[in-house]
Amino acid sequence: MPPLEHLHMKNVLQTVGVLEAVILRSFGPEGGQVLFTRDTGQAMLSRSGTRILTALQLEHPLARLCVWKHSTATGDGSKTFILLLASLLRLIHAAASKEPNVSHSYNSTKAAEAATARHLADKLLAFALKELDELIATGVVPYGGRISWEDFTATAQSPSLANNLCVQKLLRSFFHTRFGYTHCDFISHLACELLSYWKFKNELPSFSLQFVSDNFPALHTPVSGFPVCASRLIDGQVIHRDFATPPLKTDHQPVKAVVLTRSLQPTLLNTGDVLEVGCGGRMMEERSIVHFSAWMERSLQGIIANLQTLGVCVLLSAVKQSAAVLALATQAEMCVVECVSEDELSLFVRLSGTIPIWDCSMIEPEHVVTLTFCRPIQLGGHRYVHVAFQDSEERITVKPCSLVICAPGEGQTEQYACALQDAVRMLLRTWEPMHAAVTTTSKRTLQSHKSSSLHTDNLTDRTTYRSSAIQPIHKCVLEPGCVISAGGSFELLLHYALLQHGHSCSVSHDLNIDTSVSQLLANALLSVPQKIYAHSPRHFLETQSKVINSELDLGLESVSCKYQLLLAVLQCVRSLLKVDTVLPTHIALHTQSSRPASTSWEDTEDELLSGYIHLHTHTHTHIVYHAIYKEE
Amino acid sequence: MALNGDEEDFEWEPPTEAEMKVIQARRERQDKISKLMGDYLLKGYKMLGECCEVCGTILLQDRQQKNYCVSCQELDSDIDKDNPALNPQAALSQVRERQLASQSPAPSHTPELNESPSSSQGNMSVPQPRPEHCEGAAAGGRTPLPPPAVPSPSAPASTAVLAPTRPSVTPQSSAQRLVLQEAEEAVLTKLRWATNQLQSSASLEASIQLCSLITSCANSLRSLKEVSQ
Q1: Which of helix, strand or coil describes residue A581?
Q2: How does pLDDT run across B14-54, given as a tens digit for each residue?
Q3: CB neighbours of A525 closer than 8 A, spacing ≥ 6?
Q4: What are phi and psi of A309, to 5 degrees?
Q5: Number of domains in chain B
Q6: Most buried of the four, A99, A359, B17, B134, by CB within 10 Å?
Q7: What ranges does the record list as Pro residues composition bias (chain B) (predicted)?
Q8: Are the Cβ atoms of B6 and A107 closer than 8 angstroms?
């Protein structure tokens, strides 16, 4: 077994440096695309940082940690995440090697450096949680604007507004980073339409966005083989299954449907059961299984007759129904849709306001839902079921619609679908109230720091700007809907705000730590716009002046997303620097290979935090590395 | 540099210019390594959790399960540059350093070495060996020249070229003169043979090789004459 390896800052820097080198060429508006090829010959082009990083084969635990952290942190900005991470680590390393912490005795410079670096990372995170949102609110937001939820397109707004802020513009810049010029306008328009249909009346924007984000798999249909411009919205819901029995012949409206969660034919017999055929203890001749199944069929016929009296002609079933059920249903001129997925069924139930049938012997009128139509629809190479709900004021407050995403290939449809889902997530984060987004661990540190700031408040003379820190945790300083122009302006403005803050701190001889920390953060932030304009330093200088005068018009970015990204970067830095040792182990695995890639990252996090040696979801024997955290 | 003891005051001083250059070079090297590793990762290599024992860089593994260290196998090594056994440049710089060290005491010794001023001057006047000259001579010793007799005169010639710093001055003994004469004769014979071959050769490659043989014979003759003086 390979020996234990102590981790040095050099290794951490190298790992993150390599990841940075990987994504650097795709970064920025001039960034290129990565061509992915599979052994099957499928090829795909992508610039999405998430896709690139998760496609790499990384066995080094630190690299996996970085990639995991970013993929769960944000729906966007993964390349910015890695860039900020790399520049922060480099600056921390430089600062740590200058002033090793001599308060403890260490065996070597490396250990002292590592300890200083850890300390710096903790201070950075504490500073960010305590003061960053105020800095952003005062230093960055005034240069941007606010989008209101009501305005989706530029035309709906009054022309007097200088900056033409609207949701579509924000989405357009988002899709521009994903797809380039060609389709970003069309897709952003489509996304705006989708969101305007799904606006729940009398609800917060975050509610609608959360709904769309949660139900997105059921709300869209990928169709490959068509040009992207063929994508459209369809009224009602598309159920991604075909009819199991011939569809309704006559298009009589309205159509009544029920939702079944179990098989109509009750399974009285399980494997291993023994059926004793008799009749009340008396032994009769010729009682056999045939009579038993005939009796079962008679009860089934009764259920179907019950449904017929209620006028039901569509059965939506979550499970596979037996052949007898299908035959009887066809005879009764009912159509059956089998094996509907759980999320689609739950969406259907939610939109129709009905109750699914649990006990087949008791079918009540409230189990029946009225639909406008239920017919087959041909999308691409597949035939699906298309249903439309009847408008009922007390049940639905929204007009449901489904999105058909067309693209030339299967990989591309998946890309567009992912991009749309990430866009919705990004909008959700823009409109979500800030305090809900803070995680529990950061709340705890926030509390401890708030108490310490209370203490020092009594001792020193502070401006009113500082005293706002005493207010309760739930106050959200950043208002929902704040946006700023894209192209690195957020980083530039925050850089200046941090420098100013550092100066004011040093002037008031207050908490000297804050100065160096804010300086460090400011320098790290500058690396992002530097990389964006790496090809032309002149543009960089021009941009700096334009940003101050609020003249930049390169698109929009969400302020709270950027803030979340920064917090995520600082938390990742702290986790990376806390790792003390790498412990390699040999594990033979043969677990389920059907687990999706996303959950394997969650396992990784659990392993790393709790120190277990857990099974991984691969099928070969290989060395699995686990990082052990140092307790301090 | 142990950091035990709190009383010691470690003041951080800014690095000197030489150190800055070293730091800069190291940083550039690290950047190059990162870029190369990134390219390999995009090509489908796997990043392992192990480090190379030699240089400490993270190892990569290709599809055929072969481990690969970018800095050891692709970039020139950081420390091999300074090893005189591997690098002619390093050997040259070592030679130059020794020369500089011996040059300062040398002028005081010249009046005592009157009996062989020419030899010491001959030793000193062998020009600061240029890299290509040095490499050529070293290569000349290594390449298998067709006539086996040629390397032997060139070998003492190269040793004479590479060891100009030997401060001890060998007196011109008659045995040495004899050896040198024999060497001169052998070289002249070869030169004559090469000239004959050149006149009758029909292929281009053979002519080029013969010409280079003639050049090296002439060089050997020149060095032999210098040694005998």
Answers
A1: strand
A2: 777 888 888 888 889 889 999 999 999 998 899 988 888 88
A3: A84, A491, A492, A494, A495, A498
A4: -65, -30
A5: 2
A6: B134
A7: 144-154
A8: no
Integer angstrom CA distances of residue A431 from A77, A148, A217, A472: 17, 9, 22, 21
Tokens of B159: 């040793």
Q: How far is B21 from chain A (nearest CA, A)?
A: 16
- Residues 20-79 of chain A with CB under 8 A from chain B are 20-22, 24, 34, 52, 56-61, 63
End position of a domain, from candidates B82, B102, B132: B82
Lowest mean pLDDT among A154-158, A422-426, A472-476, A522-526: A472-476
- Report the candidate in A264, A255, A256, A254 with the shortest Cα–Cα distance to residue A362: A264
Tell me the pLDDT tens digit for each residue of A193-205.
999 888 887 778 8
Of A399, A431, A446, the residue at which a domain comes to its end is A399
Domain that holds residue B70: 16-82
How many folded domains does chain A comprise?
2
Helix (H, G, I), strand (E, B) or coil at A426: helix
Task: Tell me: do A358 and A243 sit in the same domain.
Answer: yes
The 3-state secondary structure of A457-477 reads: HHHCCCCHHHHHHHCCCCCCC
Same domain, A251 and A367: yes
Residue listed under structure tokens 């070969």: A620
Q: Which of A5, A18, A90, A101 has the most B C-beta neighbours within 10 Å, making it the best mutation to test the interface with B?
A: A18
Q: How far is residue A388 from each of residues A255, A542, B72, measured CA to CA in Å?
A: 10, 54, 66
- A373 has which bridge partners? A388
Burial class of B216 by CB neighbour count within 10 A (0 to 12, 13 to 18, 19+): buried
Compare B134 and B54 and report the one with higher pLDDT. Answer: B54
Cα distances (Å, whole numbers) of residue A169 to A166, A173, A632: 5, 6, 47
- Put simply, the answer to whether A5 touches B50 (Cβ < 8 Å) is yes
Residue in this structure with the two tokens 């108490």, named with its chain if needed: A451
**Rounded Cα distance, A386 and A383, in Å:** 9
pLDDT at B19: 83
How far apart, in Å, do the first and last CA atoms of chain B sit? Answer: 56
For an interface test with A, the pick among B42, B53, B62 (most A C-beta atoms closer than 10 Å) comes out as B42
Which residues of B fall below an 8 Å CB-CB distance to A? 1-6, 8, 10, 12, 30-31, 33-35, 37-39, 41-42, 44-51, 56-58
- The β-bridge partners of A255 are A371
With CA atoms as reference, the chain B residue closest to A52 would be B42
The CA distances from residue B196 to A5, A149, A421, in Å, are 68, 97, 84
Q: Please give, rounded to a whole number of angstroms, the shortest distance from the CA of B13 to a CA of chain A.
A: 9
Of A118, A131, A97, the C-alpha closest to A575 is A118
Domain enclosing residue A294, as ranges: 237-266+290-399
CB contact under 8 A, B37 and A21: yes
Write down the mean pLDDT value for chain A. 76
Contact list, A10 vs chain B (CB under 8 Å): 56
pLDDT band at A187 (very low <50, low <70, confident <90, very high): very high
Residue whose pair of structure tokens reads 């308060």 in the numeric block: A103
Using the Cα atoms of residue A57, residue A59, residue A63 and residue A64 in order, give the sign of their dihedral.
Answer: positive
Backbone angles phi, psi at A628, to 5 degrees: -105, 130
Which residues on neighbouring strands pair with residue A406, listed in sequence order?
A: A223
Q: Are A489 and A143 in contact (CB under 8 A)?
A: yes
Q: Please classify residue B90 by burial: count the beta carbons closer than 10 Å to its beta carbon, then call 0-12 exposed, 13-18 middle and 19+ buried.
A: middle
What's the CATH code of the domain at A298? 3.50.7.10
- Provide the mean pLDDT of chain B: 71
Taking an 8 Å cut-off on Cβ atoms, the answer to whether B47 and A21 are in contact is no
